[in-house]
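Class prep. Sample record?

___
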Amino acid sequence: MAKVLIVEDDPILVQLYNDILSFGNYQVILVENGLEVVQRAKFEQPDLIYLDIMMPKISGQDILKLLKCTTETKDIPVVMLTNLSEESMINRCIQLGALDYVIKANHSPQQILDMTEKYLQKKSNNPVAA
């Protein structure tokens, strides 16, 4: 069973993503505090991370930087979640190593489930050499 780490501070979205991904037969790991993400990712070794950009205490961009410069987490695919649609923000996240950028308001739960399958399929077709 693939593991998906969700980093989101909105309790309604946390429950929504948990429900839809669990229904899709994924093991869901929830983190609501951005300061815990890197340690949790190192321990859990998820197959995919959905990372909110607007987090309390530390921004999603800063978390992404930490994930991508940490040996144990640098190869885990990260998809940014946000309601910000500024082109500069999208480009910055991609430059920092995000696989994709999802605008929450534009995607239904079923689309999130479909994207998860697509991202994990892409990962299994292109394994990173250890």
In short: The chain has one domain: 3-125. The chain has a mean pLDDT of 89. The radius of gyration is 13 Å. Strands lie at 3-7, 27-31, 48-52, 78-82, 100-103.
